[in-house]
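Contributing new records

If you add data, match the layout below exactly. Sequence lines come first and carry their own label; structure lines follow with theirs. Keep one chain per record. Anything else will be rejected by the validation script.
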Amino acid sequence: MNKNTNPLKDYIYVKIKKDSDTYFIACDKKDPVQGLKARLFSMIKTAGKLPKDAEDFEAKDILLYIKDRSLEDHSSCYDQQVVNNCVLHMDY
């Protein structure tokens, strides 16, 4: 194995905001957006921030935006131009 190979070189750190809440997630830039949503859903659930009226709320119900553009679930973060230290916005 090459000593100069960094196994974390494809990892990116993403900040996701909704109102006054901010979530920080590390992911591989090749991960699909739906994987990012799944991690985010887990964090939201753990923090007790799920919508009050959403008994059936799932990760797929999360909407992520970069600037004014909605991210597509099946595309990779790289394909959607989600880069290191990127700020995404979330809605339900």
